Amino acid sequence: MNSIKMTTALAVIAATGLAGGTATAVAASDSGTVKSVAESSGRSSAASDPAATRHVAVPSGPKAEAVRDLSATRINWGNRNGCWNLTLFRADINRDTVVMASAHEGYPGFIGAAKYTVNNVAPFDGGVSAQVCVAWAAPISVFVDYVIVQR
């Protein structure tokens, strides 16, 4: 299977699919070719070359769970480098809440050379912790987008 790098787009597709809607995302393959993946009702369809597009499907189960609330928030964690455990405290998050996180530099349309990774996302009663790593020699801006799904 061809490897595709997807960040926030995957989170938006998953959250929208859980909410019963439709979303479209664009991802760049390892070769830099832009491909589109559309999600609708838990099934994926490629709008371009299937060999270069990663198909994403929401797992089926005996019964789909209803989504009570879907929200998103962006937090500016300041300038950082290295790995950090960042904790967002919110009363509406508990250990059963679905939380997806995406880290970035915070400038619309800008993709720099620094590597941002989210290694773990752990919701708990009263908030969520995420380990975010920034591979850069000096501290640079770190923003984390959280998609919160209440079931």
Average pLDDT rating? 73
Which stretches are poorly predicted, pLDDT < 50 over at least 5 residues?
1-50
- What is the distance, rounded to the nearest whole angstrom, between the alpha carbons of the first and last residues? 32 Å
* Largest sheet features: 4 strands, antiparallel
- The sequence of SSEs as H and E is EHEEEEEEEEE
Gross morphology is elongated
According to CATH, the fold-level topology of the largest domain is Immunoglobulin-like
- Assign a percent range to the helix content: under 10%
- In order across it, which strands form the biggest sheet? 1-2-3-4
Total count of helical runs of at least 4 residues: 1
CATH class of the largest domain: Mainly Beta
Compute the number of strand runs.
10
Please state roughly what percent of the residues sit in beta strands, choosing from under 5%, 5-15%, 15-25%, 25-35%, 35-45% or over 45%.
Answer: over 45%
Briefly note the structural class of the backbone: mainly beta
| Overall CATH architecture of the largest domain | Sandwich
